[in-house]
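Feature request, filed as a ticket because there's no other form

It would be nice if the structure record came with a short human-readable summary line next to the tokens. Right now we just get the raw output. Example of a typical job, pasted below so the devs can see what we mean:
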Amino acid sequence: MRLIKVALANVKTTVGAVRSNVQRARAMADKMSAEHVTLAVFPEQLVSGYPPEDLVQWHKFVEVQRKELEAFAKALEVSHTVFVLGVTVALSAHRYNCAAVVHRGRVLGLVPKEKLPTYNVFYEKRTFTRGTPFMREDVWDGVPLGDMLFRFDWGVLGVEVCEDIWTPDGPMRRRCNHGAEIVCNVSASPYRLGVQSTRREMIATRSSDNQCTIAYANQVGGQDGLIFDGGGFVSQNGRLLHESARFVEGFETTVLDLDRTQRLRAENTTWRSDAVHAVANEQKMVVVEALERGADRSTLKYPVPPGVSFFLPPPAAPRVEAREAFCEELLDALALGLGDYFEKNRFKLIGIALSGGRDSLLALLIAWRYAERRFGPAKKAEAQQLIRTFYMPTRYSSSKTQSAAELIAKELGVPFAINSIEEAFARELDAAKAMLQPGESLNPITEQNIQARIRGARMWNWSNATGGLFLQTGNMSEKAMGYTTIGGDLEGGISVISNLPKTVVIYLLDYLAEKTGFQGIKGVLSHPAGPELAANQEGEKELMPFPILDACFALYAGEKLAPSDVKLALQSLFPQVPAERLGENVDRFFRYFSQSIYKWVQAPLGLHVGNLDLDRERALQLPVVQSLEWGNEK
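Raw output as currently delivered:
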């Protein structure tokens, strides 16, 4: 047997906090060393935080990372654990996103990322240079940088960075053919709904294809609008050995037998044949020989199979209903993203304009989830005082929404204030009319927007006075349609649910109403959704039924269907709705959507929870000025 103990670390980093990031990792590394961990894997760009974006163009930003990495290595000089962590390295005009291998006080080598993503939320080719096969350079007084392996007294190690594992033709294949038994992937993979099952399957596939052991560590925490969920994996030759907890900082360990990887390779004639062919037709890969012995492995025990049986299935884990799993994961992600944005930017309070409607209610419940978890049951009063809610009625506000808003605030125990804006609304109506020329008049939309803008201004004033984070509470469906006001309800310090479709908002509230029993949630859900900026307003009557709206958005923005194809697809999705009415809805959607891009590009940062959202810098990049002639054939 060749037993080794592997640790996977989920670390909360902040971009630019190079000393603090390394200190967090150092605290974990000391504990790992005390536990005689053989190999410890930390996330991508641990030193700088991820994503550093254009900051890597500052020489000082990159140079200081070398100093912090060397300090990390020096502090762990007496440790026999091998550490793998992410860092930026400069070489001439190039910047490399690297995995550093540290052992016994030295940086043994730096391996650059080869696959640089430039899609969805990533822009790495803008700033980083890719590593290349069999690359070899020397940096930092002789520290090797390039495509290499590392040999220790316990086995042969290969390392790679994040995206390198997301393709079957990545560097893992080459390194395993040349002898790597275990491959560490240092990752900063953002959360998106459903991604964990994709990662699990992909990593198992890679370890099977390459007949190797994979140790995958992922960043955790929020950075701007991105959310990282952590959750590492150890997979040996296609078999999942360990899966780390998500959404929490810390590290977990597992013991495995590397001889098993070698045995399975020996048995696999296809792998051996491919490896022989590759080595015969490629350059010889550099292997860095570690001069110092590794961690003590004498006390490690052979890993016991689940259920203590090699032939029987493990005991069934408690089954979680699909609805609960979906809602809890999504709410955990949003609470983590909001909480880290709040803490890392050093805000003092969280403020919400609570309308008595669905969107602001869900934003409040997400903020409450964060506050509860931050302070715990013993400090409930501190959690309650972290959040402030404000109800700002006009002549159009109903007693139902006021009662629902007041009730949920009371149930949570958070401060609630009623601040009427009716007088300010009347004054602003008069002021707006005074600016018009003879024959001009205010239209109903302007009257609605005036109310929203007064509320937005008041929340900004509160934010300025208290150092509070003012939450923008609009959803993705209404944002896509421009059913929002620039300078009003589109305002805020961060958008909490701007990447949730309205149907998902309602789904989450239904779940939370059932789970918590809060009567305030039921009160909000008891009346039709509407902004209450005019008499008897209902969102679905002014726009279209939300399921149809969300389907239009998914088919156009997600599936990239033309308007004519969207109409056909909707007939399959909603056969009970007349085709003529569906066609009218599609025409309305495209008209409103294309006319509203200028609005949503001005919205604050939103929390990313899916592959599709309306953050122009991160996801859906559409021209503000455009025509739909291409999609409307005559």
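Something like this underneath would help us a lot:
The first helix runs from residue 18 to 34.
DSSP finds 19 helices and 22 strands in the chain.
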